[in-house]
User: What shape does this take?
Amino acid sequence: MRDKKNEMEVHHIIAGLNVLRAGSAASVAKLCENLVDFGVHTSIHTLNLGPAFGEQIIPNRKDVIIYNSKCWVSKDSGIIVPLGFGANLKRNASSVTALHSHGIWLPINHSSAKFAQKSGVPHIISPRGMLETWALKYKAIKKKMAWYLYQKEDLMNATAFCASSIKEAESIRRLGFKQPIAVIPNGVDLQMFPKEINNKCGSFNALFLSRLHPVKGVLDLIEAWRHFKESGYTKNNRWRLKIAGPAEEGYKTKILDVINKGNLQKDIDLLGPVYGNEKQKLFSEADLFVFPTYSENFGNVVVEALAAGVPVITTKGAPWQELEEHNCGWWTEVGVEGCYGALMVATAISEHERNEMGLRGKRLVEAKYSWPSVAGRMVEFYHWLVKKRSRPGSLFDDF
Assistant: This one.
């Protein structure tokens, strides 16, 4: 018989584990996989979104249990209607000691909040960037309706929050929520990336790899690249820009129009979605990673690029001042001008200097962002919250 007094059973809620559900699917799968190594009984409740969203990312541990619920989904509109999710949660989470929801707004998040409140189970919410100012303004009318119907109350009733950066924790506090907040970043699988950085010569590659979505700043990057080309650097130094990632509906056409109008067809490769070995190959071939986002709670692709030994350009819309602190990249103002200026600086330095920056970034990731380290901090937070053990170092402010 299991000793419930000393065990921890945490069930995680996420809308989908499919590869096209962005970085949250991969990070939740890896978190759960590593929690098991700390003795946490771990399950994931999710929706079977179907092949249109790509394959599911399954944790590489058989003792992480996956509960898939059926749903009706419209990829064009983004509407997801779960079928029987609440009943499945009630049936399979009867012995849970904590519920950890990843994301907000969707019906499954509301169902989870109701289940936690009714059963008296501690409920932790990771907003996953959905409470950032830019995110709240995007499709604002639908979100305001949900906010007043159920979302604000669900957040008020949460036991605690988990933010992936201080920036996200500050956004939660600005909205008036007083509960404990742990600041625990997402991790990276260091085994995905080579231990040594390959010295490259001849042509050089700048890489953008993320969802092709307005918030990611890809149109700013293309415009900055046009100025960069006109400066002569793309020709003289043989730089190319590779843009990879799945596109929001209709957004790829807009990107192609901007590329064509700027006469950049020979300077930019639009590659589409990449995964697994193909993704690793792109990172290994990159000399520079460029991510001119408008808003990020963390930015998984930044830590992946650093793990691959690639210096990074990103904006102050992402919480990555560590790029400057550790001299492994550039942290710019949001917009075309900031991106262009950083490109000019990053490409003017020598290949050796960029490789040294890449090595510093790699050491930063190894010290702070490995999955075992991240999972260990999460377990400390769970034990403090549920079993009243010692205060974890991840707590935000003086709570």
User: Anything to note?
Assistant: The first strand starts at residue 8 and ends at 13.
